[in-house]
Amino acid sequence: MSALGGGSAGGEGINPTASVIALVIVLVSLGIAFALAPATLIPLIGVIIGGVLISFGVHFVPVGGAPAAMGQAPGIATGVAMLAAGGGLAGLFGGAWAAEMGIWVALGAGAMGGGLLMAITCLMVNVVYVYAMGIPAASGKVEKDPITGDTYAGYRSQGTEGHGLPFISYVGGVIGGILAGAGGTLIYLELLSVYEEALPSVLGMTPEGMSTLAVSLAGIFAVGMFLVAAVLTAYNITGTIEGPHDPKFKRWPRAVIGSSAACAACGLVAILLVVI
């Protein structure tokens, strides 16, 4: 993660030089879009905002990886990118279903889809931990739950960093799913608006005939950019994270900066594909 500031050890500092480079990439992408097709400037800004929401939301998601599967760390026993992609794609599907109802309804549906998937996932994870593995929820980062006030010292096993899924991690997972789902939906909607307007003139077909192609292309690029933002954030987190109370949560500015630059470049390519 040296490109975003800090070495592989994962400090919270931001590299000023890298941040300036990322800002330049964003501005250059916006400038190219405005110069070649001024109408695509607002959609590209929406794509960047969507990437920022995804990157920020992923930091809320409790990920324990392999240690969580063995009861050695709190969180869900999978990787950051996989879990974030699940929540975000569920939101993206919900938002795409509601796309014809307007942007705000679609964003709400996308946020609800991502949040609902994470809520169900976190619930079933705790059911498995408690009733199948006999593991109580105990954080390794804080002594007391910031929301409920429950203490963890009496439930944390020796030699572990905590285990299970504490309530603050559950809430963080739902918030992360909401943000990621809304971000993925926003990217999809912005690309869809560009494709629906540009494809008929490019291919010489009626708007009705281009609907399926526009939806397909917008979905493909939205999923791709979602994974770009999620994987960049996973590299920024470097391992496991319990949620918003984890010290690693403070690294989110680096991931947001990196994801904004990556989504600006990817969004520019996705938009220019049909407007030039």
UniProtKB/TrEMBL annotation:
<comment type="subunit">
    <text>The complex is composed of 8 subunits; MtrA, MtrB, MtrC, MtrD, MtrE, MtrF, MtrG and MtrH.</text>
</comment>
<dbReference type="GO" id="GO:0012506">
    <property type="term" value="C:vesicle membrane"/>
</dbReference>
<keyword id="KW-1278">Translocase</keyword>
<feature type="transmembrane region" description="Helical">
    <location>
        <begin position="104"/>
        <end position="132"/>
    </location>
</feature>
<comment type="pathway">
    <text>One-carbon metabolism; methanogenesis from CO(2); methyl-coenzyme M from 5,10-methylene-5,6,7,8-tetrahydromethanopterin: step 2/2.</text>
</comment>
<feature type="transmembrane region" description="Helical">
    <location>
        <begin position="167"/>
        <end position="189"/>
    </location>
</feature>
<keyword id="KW-0808">Transferase</keyword>
<keyword id="KW-0472">Membrane</keyword>
<dbReference type="GO" id="GO:0005737">
    <property type="term" value="C:cytoplasm"/>
</dbReference>
<dbReference type="GO" id="GO:0006730">
    <property type="term" value="P:one-carbon metabolic process"/>
</dbReference>
<feature type="transmembrane region" description="Helical">
    <location>
        <begin position="255"/>
        <end position="275"/>
    </location>
</feature>
<keyword id="KW-1003">Cell membrane</keyword>
<keyword id="KW-0554">One-carbon metabolism</keyword>
<dbReference type="GO" id="GO:0030269">
    <property type="term" value="F:tetrahydromethanopterin S-methyltransferase activity"/>
</dbReference>
<dbReference type="GO" id="GO:0019386">
    <property type="term" value="P:methanogenesis, from carbon dioxide"/>
</dbReference>
<dbReference type="GO" id="GO:0032259">
    <property type="term" value="P:methylation"/>
</dbReference>
<keyword id="KW-0812">Transmembrane</keyword>
<comment type="function">
    <text>Part of a complex that catalyzes the formation of methyl-coenzyme M and tetrahydromethanopterin from coenzyme M and methyl-tetrahydromethanopterin. This is an energy-conserving, sodium-ion translocating step.</text>
</comment>
<keyword id="KW-0489">Methyltransferase</keyword>
<dbReference type="InterPro" id="IPR005779">
    <property type="entry name" value="MeTrfase_D"/>
</dbReference>
<keyword id="KW-0484">Methanogenesis</keyword>
<dbReference type="GO" id="GO:0005886">
    <property type="term" value="C:plasma membrane"/>
</dbReference>
<feature type="transmembrane region" description="Helical">
    <location>
        <begin position="44"/>
        <end position="64"/>
    </location>
</feature>
<dbReference type="Pfam" id="PF04207">
    <property type="entry name" value="MtrD"/>
</dbReference>
<protein>
    <recommendedName>
        <fullName>Tetrahydromethanopterin S-methyltransferase subunit D</fullName>
        <ecNumber>7.2.1.4</ecNumber>
    </recommendedName>
</protein>
<comment type="similarity">
    <text>Belongs to the MtrD family.</text>
</comment>
<feature type="transmembrane region" description="Helical">
    <location>
        <begin position="210"/>
        <end position="235"/>
    </location>
</feature>
<keyword id="KW-1133">Transmembrane helix</keyword>
<feature type="transmembrane region" description="Helical">
    <location>
        <begin position="76"/>
        <end position="97"/>
    </location>
</feature>
<feature type="transmembrane region" description="Helical">
    <location>
        <begin position="20"/>
        <end position="37"/>
    </location>
</feature>
